[in-house]
Amino acid sequence: MTERKPPHAAQWCKPLIACYFLCLSAGISLAATLSTPVATSAPSAPKGPKPNIVILVADDWGFSDLGAFGGEIATPHLDALAQRGVRFSNFHAAASCSPTRSMLLTGVESHRAGIGNLRESTPRAHMSSPAYQGSLSQRVVTVSSLLKDNGYRTYVTGKWNVGSEPRNLPPERGFDRSIVQGDTGSDNWDPAQRYLPHTDKVYWYEDGRNAVMPQKFYSSEYFVDRMIGYLNQDQASAKPFLAYVGFQANHVPLQAPAEFIAKYKGRYDQGWAALRQARRDRAAALGLVPANTPMVTLPTTLDWAAQDAQTQRYQARRMEVYAAMAEAMDHQVGRLVEHLKTTGQYDHTVFVFLSDNGAEGYDYVMAQPWLVTQYSQDIDRLGGPGAYSYQGPSWASASNSPMNGFKFYAGEGGIRVPMFIAGAGVQSTQAIYAGLTHVTDIAPTLLDMAGIARPSDAYRGKPIETMAGHSLWAALQGQNTALRRADEILGYELSGNSALFKGPLKLVKNIPPLGKGEWHLYDVVADPGETRDLQQQLPTEFAAMQKDYQIWADAHGVLPVPADYNPAFQVAINMTLDYWLPTYGPWMAGCTMLFIVGLVGWRRRKQ
Q: What is d(CA 89, CA 86) in angstroms, rounded to the nearest whole number?
């Protein structure tokens, strides 16, 4: 079959791509007080043996992708776990993978942990700052280290992405056994295939050394296989365990076994607007958002009815693959759960599930035409080996329903994600906690559940950053009380997209194309879709929160992004300067930069 590009692909890129790859082939304080958690008494130490802990991290799942959060995708195993515990409907992460994972592992805000931005999208001027190193600071200690120190056996499989220096690989961060992918992602069928040309190869590490990977695999299955293998090897141990599985689903490229894709044929033929509304209604019926939550239509969301039949079919296929990838991941979670039941560990295990950020709205192929030389985009091959698909901004808006925005941006669609904690030690079941919670809250919660004291300002004789998060213990015991004071602030920044939470209010600004770099004010409890700007009605709060944000930003080492900053093109620039130039020389790199300049110019003319 003759391959064809997706019908939306613009003709403008053909000469640019031809030129580019011709060259390529030829070249081959107060703020500390404001951010300090409320002083609370420590929870009672758990009675009986310490619980096993399983952390399941999904990649790029939107707020309503999970069935238990309003989605239509079949996720029965995760849904069953969620029903055994507490779903957190107002839970926030960073809008990108590395910052979230740094906070999950340490309980420390991402800039203080050294990962204020994804390494690939960090402005060059920021790279000398300790807040933007792109890997974990030596001033943080991981929850895995603390658990290991206190008698846990510790395992991690899957995506790591918090630093590939020897000091930051899993063995030095508290894991006994590990098989991890050190980069932002890779192909899900071929572990050696890069999804973007950031480096010379995909870097896999096993127990801190370069790993020997199979020639072919399916990533979700492989990560669970390896985790089950670790558990089996040590099944005679009386020690409790920490099992951290970092899935690549649903990071690009979207890929899934054919039998899962077939289940969704025709499911998305009504388009993204219909799906967005249906999910909003189900999330409201579940009690996760207010009834009839208003929603915005993003400038990046296309009019479904205006697309021709061929485009609609192609776009629907993309979402079919996306749903299949999520269900395939859930199926593998089911295998892990069944293993724990068979070995008698299930009832002694607490499960934590979260997505690292909202659904992805980035158009990879338009910004990285290299992909069309490496992968097929034929509709009949999407999802399979050798094919590349991505969700795109219109479907991402539906995945994040009813929230505003998507991955990389500070709207609720980028940073409010599904999260639940269930199992051993959780007294509240089938519950929803609506208070403001954050990814930094997970590490202190796990330590409390294990009866382990949090370090204050030192670890093994060296100064460390203090955990910023709150323990969620009270919520897990059924106490529906606020974990944060009404006047306590929670700041956020990534790539110039910024936010500050204070009570029900959220101050937020986004850079183009989802914003103009201007501040807005929303009540995200009553209006999680961020549709009603309150800056005129609440001018005092609006001004005060901007001051609070600046104090927070100064204390956390936040730097302003350059005026012309664009994350997608920063990735291309960093890729050129850090990989292509050192590897293939200045002439090829010059051709790359000319290509980038031409592409940037075209995009600006189109805006």
A: 9
- 153 DSSP β-pair partners: 241
Beta-carbon contacts of 578 under 8 Å, excluding residues fewer than 6 positions away, are: 198
Instruction: Enter the tokens of residue 319.
Output: 């979402």
User: Across-strand partners of 493?
Assistant: 498
User: Measured in whole angstroms, how far is the alpha carbon of residue 222 from the centre of its chain?
Assistant: 20
Kindly report, residue by residue over 21-59, the tens digit of the pLDDT. Answer: 333 333 333 333 333 333 334 455 456 789 999 999 999
Closest CA to 592 of 584, 476, 484: 584
Closest CA to 88 of 472, 446, 491: 472
Residue 18 has pLDDT above 90, yes or no: no
pTM given for the model: 0.91
Q: 192 with 169: CB under 8 angstroms?
A: no
45 three-class SS:
coil
Closest CA to 358 of 416, 311, 432, 437: 416
Q: Per-residue pLDDT for 564 more than 50?
A: yes
Q: Encode pLDDT of 147-178 as tens digits.
A: 999 999 999 999 999 999 999 999 999 999 99
Tell me which H or E stretch contains 586: helix 586-606
Pairing, β 462-463 against β 204-206: unpaired
CA-based nearest residue to 336, from 429, 419, 243: 243
Q: How far apart are CA 419 and CA 196, in angstroms?
A: 29
Evaluated on CA atoms 464, 493, 156, 348, the torsion sign reads positive
Instruction: Tell me how far apart the alpha carbons of residues 171 and 156 are, in angstroms, rounded to a whole number.
Output: 10
User: How far is residue 464's CA from residue 275's CA, in Å, rounded to a whole number?
Assistant: 46
Taking the CA atoms of 58, 62, 65 and 66 in sequence, report the sign of the dihedral they define: positive
**Residues present in the chain in total:** 607
Preceding omega of 513 cis (within 30 degrees of 0): yes
- Contact at 8 Å (CB) between 76 and 263? no
- Report the sign of the C-alpha dihedral through residues 343, 347, 348, 354, in that order: positive
DSSP 220-266: HHHHHHHHHHHHHHTTT--S-EEEEEE--TTSSSP---HHHHHTTTT
- What does the pLDDT look like over 271-299, one tens digit per residue? 999 999 999 999 999 999 999 999 999 99
What local confidence, expressed as pLDDT, does residue 286 receive? 98
Share in percent of the chain as helix, strand, coil (round to 5): 35, 15, 50
pLDDT above 70 as % of the chain: 88
Q: Which two tokens stand for residue 189?
A: 């069928």
In whole angstroms, what is the distance from residue 522 CA to residue 223 CA?
40
How many angstroms separate the Cα of 231 from the Cα of each of 212, 218, 238, 343, 365? 20, 20, 12, 10, 40
Alpha carbon distance 165, 169 (integer Å): 6
Q: 528-557 pLDDT, tens per residue?
A: 999 999 999 999 999 999 999 999 999 999
Q: Which domains does the chain have, with CATH numbers?
A: 13-555 (3.40.720.10)
